Amino acid sequence: MISVTLLGAGNVATHLFKTFNNSNQIAVKQWFNRSIDAIEPFKNDVAITDDLNTLQDADIYIIAVSDDAIADISSQLPFENKLVVHTSGSVNVHDLNAKNRRGVFYPLQTFSKSAEMDFVNVPICIETLVKTDYPILKALAVAVGSPVRKVNSEQRRTLHLAAVFVNNFTNQLYRVAHEITESEEAEFDFLKPLILETAKKVQNMSPYLAQTGPAKRNDKKTIKKHLKLLKNDQHKDIYNLLTQSIKDTHGR
Amino acid sequence: MISVTLLGAGNVATHLFKTFNNSNQIAVKQWFNRSIDAIEPFKNDVAITDDLNTLQDADIYIIAVSDDAIADISSQLPFENKLVVHTSGSVNVHDLNAKNRRGVFYPLQTFSKSAEMDFVNVPICIETLVKTDYPILKALAVAVGSPVRKVNSEQRRTLHLAAVFVNNFTNQLYRVAHEITESEEAEFDFLKPLILETAKKVQNMSPYLAQTGPAKRNDKKTIKKHLKLLKNDQHKDIYNLLTQSIKDTHGR
Description:
The structure is a homodimer. Chain A has nine helices and eight strands. By secondary structure, chain A is an alpha/beta fold. Chain A has two domains: 2-151, NAD(P)-binding Rossmann-like Domain (Rossmann fold), CATH 3.40.50; 156-249, N-(1-d-carboxylethyl)-l-norvaline Dehydrogenase, domain 2. The longest helix of chain A has 31 residues, at 153-183. The model of chain A has no long low-confidence stretch (mean pLDDT 96).
């Protein structure tokens, strides 16, 4: 049985709590949040607290708060030499206070408030400063069914950066498509199967091989038509830049 | 029973043939291609031909060839006043020769050579110049399980343009992420669940509401870190432009 104490009450913390709580190999010892209100709904499932001085012994303390608050909360912990990890993709492991054994438990996934998440689909990137701390963090990830990798700081930063491209930026392209279709009374909904298929395609094929369309074919006529249709200058800029990027990738 | 003759042997034509051939409400009368070799493997399933003059009577003739070849092949058809449609998102319906009744049967999906496609996931956009030609095209789409919409030329052009954003451009962002991860010995594979979840998220939520990340939060520190990590100037340009686009969308 792995005992865990959670700190923070955002999306990541809440999803971690739910999946830990469902595992019979994990005991969530306590759940801390600065404001007790946010975790009040879970008080029948776990001991909740808003006082760091009440924290009891646990195998792992997981700090799942906003990036800016990690260093601060880690320095306020009233104990030493315990295993303390944060869950951020971009915060340095050394930002955690050095009085404890430090590590990172970074779930590489986007979490929604509303939807449940099966952790089989949440890869966990683990980093530890003390080598012997790795096995228990790996066991924690495995207990919830997650794929797990040991990554160093550079790899984690790189994955976090790449995640911005495939998640935030991709989602913004969906948003632009939404704006384009709405403005011409076409249905964004009609694009949804294509959105899903595009993501499915690269599960088994490289994005290089999966590419199609006017930019890859260097179909100047269609590209010109599209640019003429676009009314918003920023949409035009995005069209031009990504068309050029595809051309460069495919040697056009 | 709807009788169909297919013209062309590319990805779209091949997927259409397979799904039509599986339906007991559709008879594929003939399959034409300029080069017979491409359709030779199907000669036991359907009458194949490379001679337009051998085309027999059918309810619908579907021209699924490259955009540039549509006008030409439609003018070479040796008959008049039949229902002739193309399958392109961007070609004008009037590019089809006026001697026949013209329409468009545009499948809004990306097709792979290798993978089978369930047409439940292939929305069909239908346009007809003669109103009475709509029902049989709709029946054809419904027979293979496709969602179907009547769209006008403007809406179809808009959907095709928006499809470039959610398919080609999104795929290029996956490619950029592949380049970024490879260059730092991180694993692109580890991003695949996130890619899928990002696409799933907007099936039930608007891209506006689904957005997260440093640009939306206007998290200048993380944005600065990311720009410093990016070595490729074009990657930097994409990062800056899409970050600005997200900021503008969310009023940052």
